[in-house]
């Protein structure tokens, strides 16, 4: 049932908890992808964010651990596991997410939500090692609770919970789980610090709601959605037609041997036209898909450049718009 602390392969000793941490890291990446996809994040940038976030968490964690050796204040606040500072890890990841969300004009609340879910999944799996290797039964409870936290929050994200709430709830639940099960990692100042962070996040989130734009009326949104859906249908039809007339797909072109040179020129030209039409259909379809995704997550109709509402008249003419008239062509 239990797993040994280490295995030896050719005189090389492998600590098995590192294997857990590695698999947990893979799970973290998977959840970032799985959750981020739902919000329409650019997947490539999202993976960059995941790696940079982990790196930044590690570096901050090491720095704070070194500081805690020199400063009693830091030592009092922080919780440490081995030679890593938990406070440092939280600050490092948070700092990286805030900076990158500013750089790429992403919603910081959504990004924090995605990453708090992936960290819950990471914790669930890595803490399991304390049960399976070190026979600590609380490790099993914590693992199950973190898994439950992930499953419940991911279930209600984007439906019942507004963006930003998953992050705040995650912090509160995690603090509860850890202080309930791991007495040695209980630090009152650290708990207060985390709870404060979660409240500050909610306050800023609520203020944003109040200062935000008046939402597009539900009627207009529905009619724009219908326009987009029928556009999508139309584009799919266009792609099917292009597949049929693409000379590359023409199976009997070798059999028909009229004039080989004319034939080749004709084929090249029509191939070019088909390719152009296909590229433009692909681009249009991507824009339509993006607009529909933005409707699903509730940031439709906001300029990607300045964050202000896009003019209603512009949306009526061009429902795929992701920028206001002023920032047209700058996306
Ligand atoms: Zn703008």
Automatic annotation (TrEMBL):
* InterPro entries (UniProt xref): Znf_DskA_TraR (IPR000962)
Q: Establish whether keyword Zinc-finger is in the entry.
A: yes
Q: Which residues form the Zinc finger DksA/TraR C4-type domain?
A: 298-326
Q: Which domain of life is it from?
A: Bacteria
- In the UniProt record, does the keyword RNA-binding occur? no
Q: Where are the transmembrane segments?
A: 12-34, 46-65, 81-100, 112-134, 140-156, 163-182, 188-204
Zinc finger (dksA C4-type) residue numbers: 303-327
| Keywords attached to this entry | Membrane, Metal-binding, Transmembrane, Transmembrane helix, Zinc, Zinc-finger
Q: Output the Gene Ontology terms for molecular function.
A: zinc ion binding
Q: Quote the PANTHER family the UniProt record gives.
A: GENERAL STRESS PROTEIN 16O (PTHR33823:SF4), RNA POLYMERASE-BINDING TRANSCRIPTION FACTOR DKSA-RELATED (PTHR33823)
User: Could you identify this protein by its name?
Assistant: Zinc finger DksA/TraR C4-type domain-containing protein
Which source organism?
candidate division WWE3 bacterium RIFCSPLOWO2_01_FULL_37_15
């Amino acid at each position: 049932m239990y797993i040994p602390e280490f295995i030896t392969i050719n005189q090389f000793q492998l600590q098995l908890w590192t294997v857990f941490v590695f698999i947990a890291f893979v799970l973290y990446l998977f959840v970032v992808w799985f959750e981020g996809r739902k919000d329409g994040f650019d997947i490539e940038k999202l993976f960059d964010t995941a790696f940079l976030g982990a790196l930044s968490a590690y570096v901050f964690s090491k720095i704070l651990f070194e500081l805690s050796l020199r400063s009693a204040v830091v030592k009092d606040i922080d919780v440490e596991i081995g030679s890593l500072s938990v406070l440092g890890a939280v600050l490092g990841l948070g700092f990286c997410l805030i900076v990158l969300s500013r750089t790429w004009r992403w919603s910081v609340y959504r990004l924090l939500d995605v990453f708090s879910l992936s960290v819950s999944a990471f914790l669930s799996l890595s803490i399991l090692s304390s049960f399976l290797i070190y026979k600590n039964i609380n490790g099993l409870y914590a693992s199950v609770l973190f898994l439950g936290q992930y499953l419940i929050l991911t279930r209600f994200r984007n439906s019942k919970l507004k963006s930003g709430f998953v992050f705040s709830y995650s912090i509160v639940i995690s603090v509860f789980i850890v202080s309930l099960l791991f007495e040695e990692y209980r630090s009152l100042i650290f708990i207060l610090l985390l709870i404060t962070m979660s409240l500050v996040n909610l306050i800023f989130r609520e203020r944003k709601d109040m200062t935000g734009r008046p939402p597009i009326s539900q009627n207009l949104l529905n009619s724009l959605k219908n326009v987009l859906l029928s556009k999508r249908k139309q584009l799919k039809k266009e792609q099917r037609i292009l597949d049929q007339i693409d000379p590359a797909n023409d199976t009997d072109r070798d059999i028909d041997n009229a004039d080989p040179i004319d034939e080749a020129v004709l084929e090249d030209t029509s191939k070019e036209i088909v390719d152009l039409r296909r590229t433009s259909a692909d681009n249009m379809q991507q824009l339509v898909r993006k607009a529909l995704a933005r409707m699903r997550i509730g940031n439709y109709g906001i300029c990607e450049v300045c964050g202000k509402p896009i003019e209603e008249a512009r949306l009526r003419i061009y429902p795929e718009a992701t920028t206001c008239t002023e920032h047209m062509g700058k996306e």
